[in-house]
Amino acid sequence: MGRGADRLVIFPSSLGWIALQGAGVTLKQLSFGRPTPDAALGQLDPALAAGAVVARWNPELVKRLQAYAEGARDAFLDVKLDLGPQTEFQRRVVARCRAIGYGKVMTYGELALAAGSPRAARAVGSVMRTNRVPLIVPCHRVVASGGGMGGYSAGEGVRMKLRLLELEGVEKAPRPRYRA
Hints:
7 strands, 2 domains
């Protein structure tokens, strides 16, 4: 196995089992909120995970994610990501989503506006739906207008989204007013 070989790490947390795939210092995908290690691995994109080996990788990130699951504040902004090919719009949405502070929320429309495409709330939803690194790109902090949750594909779906927002101190039915 060469230094750049992709590695898979599976570990328990208070948010369920987490699986990470990365190479070097770069994270490629993450799944969490699963009841078993196999379920966590099964949520990773199999085409992307092909050839990756289960091995020790980025123990510091593992510790940070476990601490976050216990309520520790962490923006994860220093985590390097490989999200594959993206359009300029997708890059702007991901960058702006990563900037949403711990315990804050933003609506899909507000995120579209912040990303420079004020009429693209549905397209923002598509970017969030295909997020390969939830928690690191905190798509759980993006809610529907009027305080609704919108969707969530990790763990237990919207229940997990609510759990994450409550973990961060956001009220159960957040008011979609973003403050940096």
